Every structure is written in C-alpha cells, then in structure tokens.
Amino acid sequence: MCRVVGTVVGAVHHPAYDGHKLLVVEPLDERGQPAGASFLAVDTVQAGIGDRVLVNQEGNGAGQILLRHGTPGGIPKGERRPPIRSLIVGVIDRVDLA
Amino acid sequence: MYLSRVVGTVVAARKYAGLEGIKLLIVQPLDHAQRASGEPHVACDTVQAGPGDLVYCVSAREAALALEPWFVPVDAAIVGIVEHVEAVRP
C-alpha cells in the first residue's frame, strides 16, 4: 500500500519505458502513515498524485501484466520481460481495520 | 525502481563476458525530495547518463533485463534520465 507523491518527467529512457507513466510512491502502514523510503512505479490504472494505491514490487508479476495486457497466463514463450519491477495495480478506495 | 544522482564513474577493464562496453556509474539513491536514501552503489548505464545527472534505476533481476545480452551478473541499471520530479510535499 502506497501513496502517490509525485510524477517523474524525463525525456531519455530505456525503450521498455516508452508510453509508461512513472510515479513516485511512498509506502504506507495500515493506518495510512508513511512507512519507508519512496520509490518509483509504472502506473497501469491512471492513478494521480495523492491517491492511495496498490503497488506490485516484483519483476515477474510486472512482466506478466505488461506483456499479457490483462490476458491470463504466464509470460509468452520467447518474450523477454521488461526491466520494470514496480507497478501500480490498483487505486484503494477504503481500508477497514478491525 | 528508484531515483538516484550519478556521483561517479567506475572503470573496469576486465569484466565478465557480456559486460564488455557497458558503462559503470556510481549512483546515490534519493527519495522524492531528492534527499539521500540508502548507500551509493554501482549501476550499469543504458541511457548515456553522466556525473551530476538525476536518473532512475532498476534493481535485481530486472537490471540485467535492461542490457544486451541480458543474462549478465548486474545488480542495478540506470534506465532513465529525469528532467524534474513534481512532488506534492518535501
């Protein structure tokens, strides 16, 4: 769980980052308080600054999502995963604590 | 992925096969307010970055995937140069 705290603007990047929006996210604890150093993630859900989001921080999952465009299954044979590790995969509406 | 500032270069004449011709830079990881966040380390360059540039890096397995050939032993790769970061709070 993270909060979007910024956007990254840059002209030069690795070709795998073409067409992707890169946001700065800060990890949150279960109460929504900052919990760790910020990092960058590629947006897949049109998140914006201030949104609480779900972030997948693992390259294989990121590769499956980016290469399959939402269709189920593993990474297609012969395709190389992109060098992208962190993905924003959801916008959080509500967190309920017991 | 994380923001970093390029703070130095590394010259290594003898490297693992596959790493020939790859530029090695020292990067200092930064948070969104561009404060130091973690220890400086060596990263492979894929975007012709230079000392002083604000960049972003990818780490672990995905770092090698940024390179050609991609089955090489690297921990971090610079995959973009940053013009600026729009951040809501310092």
Give an overview in words:
Chain A is mainly beta. Chain A has one domain (2-91): Beta Barrel (OB fold (Dihydrolipoamide Acetyltransferase, E2P)), CATH 2.40.50. Helix content of chain A is 10%, strand content 33%. Chain A contains one helix and five strands, in the order E-E-E-E-H-E. Chain A has one helix spanning 59-68, and strands at 2-9, 21-27, 39-43, 52-57, 86-91. The longest helix of chain A has 10 residues, at 59-68. Chain A is globular, with a radius of gyration of 14 Å. Chain A starts with a strand and ends in a 7-residue tail after the last strand. Chain B has 90 residues and is mainly β. Chain B is built from one helix and six strands, in the order E-E-E-E-H-E-E. The longest helix of chain B is centred in the C-terminal third of the chain and has 5 residues, at 61-65. Chain B has a five-stranded mixed beta barrel with strand order 1-2-3-5-4. Chain B starts with a strand and ends with a strand. At the A-B interface, strand 1, strand 2 and strand 3 of A face strand 4, helix 1, strand 5 and strand 6 of B.
Question: In short, what is this structure?
Answer:
The complex is a heterodimer of chains A (98) and B (90). Chain A is mainly beta.
Q: Which H/E pattern describes the elements of chain B?
A: EEEEHEE
Strand content of chain A: 25-35%
How many beta strands in the DSSP annotation of chain A? 5
Runs of chain A in which pLDDT lies below 50 for 5 or more consecutive residues are none
- Tell how many strands the DSSP assignment of chain B holds: 6
CATH class of chain B: Mainly Beta
Amino-to-carboxy terminus distance of chain A: 17 Å
Order of helices and strands of chain A: EEEEHE
Report the structural category of chain A.
Answer: mainly beta
The biggest beta sheet of chain B reads: 5 strands, mixed, barrel
Strand order of the largest sheet of chain B: 1-2-3-5-4
Corresponding CATH superfamily of chain B: EutN/Ccml
Name the shape of chain A in a single word.
Answer: globular
Question: What is the overall number of helices of chain B?
Answer: 1
What CATH architecture label of chain A applies?
A: Beta Barrel
Spatial strand order of the main sheet of chain A: 1-2-3-5-4
Q: How far apart lie the N and C ends of chain B?
A: 20 Å
Specify the oligomeric state.
Answer: heterodimer
Helix amount of chain A: 10-25%
Rg of chain B (CA only):
13 Å
